[in-house]
Design brief:
Helix 1 (15-27) runs parallel beside helix 3 and helix 1 packs parallel to helix 10. The longest helix has 29 residues, at 354-382. With 403 residues, the chain is of the alpha/beta class. Helix content is 30%, strand content 26%. It has a domain at 3-52 and 107-175 and 300-380: FAD/NAD(P)-binding domain. The strands form four sheets. It has a seven-stranded mixed beta sheet, sandwiched between helices.
Length: 403
């Protein structure tokens, strides 16, 4: 088999791995994609994410143009205008900062993943155990004893990337937890109850209580039109909330049981002078059977790796896992997919050799990713102390996210 005929091996069928698959398919570059989960619904993916309109449309406009609108959390959301959001003082309800506008989509991660999977033949239930260089590229081994050879291994296997840890070792390749703890949950609200939150912002808002340091993020997940309840007797709005705080001692660690986590959130909502009424009452009314998830706040500032002479690379959260406080992870991942596809295209058509193509991709991505991780880390810390926030803080200033 000659080199140009060998496929690109993609590991990870999350939104970035699938975005790369769509981009390679559009470019006519052969690929195979593998995912450790047994099927696309193996894990909950009901969160909403913000994605740059430009990044998403660059990847999908020609491949899946008619379906782009179907992934928005609100079908009436406009994307032809720049949308600003606010950072609130959660004690007074006043706007502490207005985060500058940026043209973006607020989309369902699950629906986006389903959209990106269209027309892509994913090999499910395949977990990477090792890889090695070959004369023509790279051989990838899976935990079930099977293997595959390809021209390049492109790992988009998430923040806990096995490929990254194989490249760098656990000590250097593992993410580092920050001194912040975060709990998150979904709620289904009546139109009346949702209205009190949506009156603050129709899509998302966030803020900090200056007396307690508690940070709260709220975002719309779906409207009755999106979740199928519009024509029922009880239309519902789905929302997600995250509550986080700085760790100053053992008392600030996340409780083990769901009931204790729920009590923790409700206690934070009432602490000090309490959160603004809309948020406090929403949290106080959380049903007892609501699942509360512990979101580990961790990151990994990108460092160079030895990619076996241009045979192995990382992208998305595998390359630059960052905290959620700036909302740029998906956009950076899609930028990675677009840029890697362009470099691979130049190699497959003979304009560059493989090592040059991967080196050029990684040079830009590593610098951009490293900076993005550190900016998100600082935003995470600043988000829990209103006194540290200024118009130039990375929590507020998003100029770098126009990627």
């Amino acid at each position: 088999m000659s080199l140009p005929q060998l496929p690109v091996i993609i590991v990870g069928a999350g939104i970035v791995g699938l975005a790369l698959a769509q981009a390679l398919k559009k470019a006519g570059i052969p690929f195979l994609i593998y995912e450790r989960d047994q099927h696309i619904d193996a894990r909950p993916s009901g969160w909403g994410i913000s994605v740059s309109c430009a990044a998403l449309e660059t990847l999908l406009a020609s491949a899946l143009p008619s379906a782009l609108g179907s992934i928005q959390v609100d079908p009436h959301q406009r994307t032809d205008i720049d949308t600003a959001s606010v950072f609130l003082n959660l004690e007074t309800g006043e706007t502490a900062f207005e985060i500058p506008p940026g043209a973006c989509w607020r989309v369902s991660r699950g629906k986006l993943r389903e959209l990106l999977a269209r027309g892509i033949d994913v090999n499910w239930g395949k977990s990477v155990s090792d890889f090695r260089s070959t004369a023509h590229g790279v051989s990838v081994c899976f935990s079930d004893g099977t293997g595959v050879e390809g021209a390049v291994l492109a790992a988009a296997d998430g923040g806990g990337s096995k490929v990254r840890r194989l490249l760098l070792g656990d000590d250097q390749g593992n993410m580092k937890q920050l001194p912040v703890r975060c709990l998150a949950f979904h709620l289904r609200l009546t139109r009346e109850k949702a209205a009190t939150l949506l009156a603050i912002d129709p899509l998302l808002c966030q803020g900090n209580h200056p007396g307690t340091g508690t940070y709260v993020f709220f975002a719309l997940l779906s409207t009755p039109e999106r979740n199928g309840t519009l024509e029922t007797d009880s239309p519902r709005f789905e929302v997600q909330l995250e509550v986080s705080w700085l760790v100053n001692g053992p008392q600030d660690e996340v409780p083990e049981s769901n009931a204790e986590r729920l009590a923790k959130i409700k206690g934070l909502a009432k602490a000090g002078t309490g959160l603004i009424t809309a948020l406090r009452e929403t949290i106080e009314d959380i049903p007892d059977d609501t699942t509360v998830l512990h979101i580990k706040v961790a990151d990994w500032p990108t460092v160079p790796w030895n990619g076996l002479g241009g045979r192995v690379t990382l992208l998305g959260d595998a390359a630059h896992p960052m905290t959620q406080y700036r909302g740029g992870a998906a956009t950076h991942g899609f930028t990675d997919a677009t840029n890697l596809t362009e470099q691979l295209r130049l190699w497959y058509q003979g304009s560059k050799n493989r090592q040059e193509a991967l080196a050029d991709f990684e040079a830009e991505m590593m610098q951009r990713g490293h900076e993005a991780v550190l900016l998100s880390r600082q935003a995470c810390l600043d988000a829990h102390d209103l006194r540290r926030l200024t118009p130039d803080s990375s929590m507020v200033n998003r100029d770098d996210q126009a990627v």
